[in-house]
Amino acid sequence: MHYKLLLEYDGTNYHGWQIQPTGATVQGTLEAVLSRILNTPVRVRVAGRTDAGVHALGQVATFQATTPLNLVRFQHSLNSVLPSDIVIRAISEVADTFHPRYDAHSRTYQYRIWNQPSPSAMHVRYSWHIPYPLDQEAMNAAAALLIGQHDFSSFQGADSVERTPWRTVMHSAVCRERDFLVYTVEARSFLRHMVRNIVGTLVDVGRGALSVDEFSTVFAARNRSRAGLNAPPQGLFLVTVRY
Where is 78: in which H helix or E strand? Predict the structure, then answer.
């Protein structure tokens, strides 16, 4: 039997999704709990790996079980054993051919910036604090330039091992939500550190260090060294995976 999990997690205390030689990971924690409850070794597949400190509101993972499960009872059992910063929001049976990564049509990420003079004790784990004013309209105009199929070499991580830097972005926008600036981006797939590198460069636009035209030039240069800094991980959320 093949099952799909919808997960929410706070990535603060984890060295990312993928199992590492040292340090706690979301995958390692989840697999240990699944193996304990099912009394057999369990491996999971995931829609997209998140880096250390990155959060998820709608991560998708799958696993196999040798016998049918009572889904309501099993979800309750998982959440009673998992640490409080990992929650199973839903569980369903899927076809054996379903793959959470390769069958996904798109993934949506959000990055949250706490744009106030003083920091916030409540939001420090879930946003990037920038105390100076940012021009949301200029940032949104720059973000819109990313929509479509493009070479995102300027925004890929130095350690990226993807076959091609070309990606298709369906939505890219910056909006203000009270004390926050929120960047939302939807794409079929992402390069390593792509969203955080985009955000770091959009902040340069927002603070006036880059014009929208200069952002376009940086994007077209296909050169990571031309773009802004890699925004810190705690502001990034995997919001949803669409199938």
Answer: helix 71-81
Give tens-digit pLDDT for 179-200: 999 999 999 999 999 999 999 9
Q: What is the Cβ-side half-sphere exposure of residue 54, based on CA atoms within 13 angstroms? A: 24
Distances (CA, A) of 239 to 8, 20, 38, 112: 9, 24, 29, 12
Structure tokens that stand for 221 in this block: 């240069």
CA distances to 109, 134, 200 from 204, rounded to whole Å, are 20, 9, 7
Q: Which residue numbers are catalytic? A: 51
In angstroms, what CA-CA distances link 14 with 11, 26, 30, 241?
Answer: 5, 6, 12, 21
Sign of the Cα torsion 114, 120, 122, 125 reads positive
Residues 237 and 210 sit within 8 Å (Cβ to Cβ): no
Q: How far apart are CA 148 and CA 171, in angstroms?
A: 9
Using alpha carbons, list the distances in angstroms from residue 151 to 102, 164, 209, 213: 21, 8, 23, 17
Express each pLDDT in 44-92 by its tens digit. Answer: 999 999 999 999 999 999 999 999 999 999 999 999 999 999 999 999 9
Q: Point out which residues pair with 241 in neighbouring strands.
A: 107
How far apart are the C-alpha atoms of 184 and 174, rounded to whole Å? Answer: 6
Burial 203-242 (b: 16+ CB within 10 A, else e): bbbbeeebebeebeebbeeeebeebbebbbbbbbbbbbbe
Cα–Cα dist 193/196, whole Å: 5
Instruction: Provide the whole-model pTM.
Output: 0.96
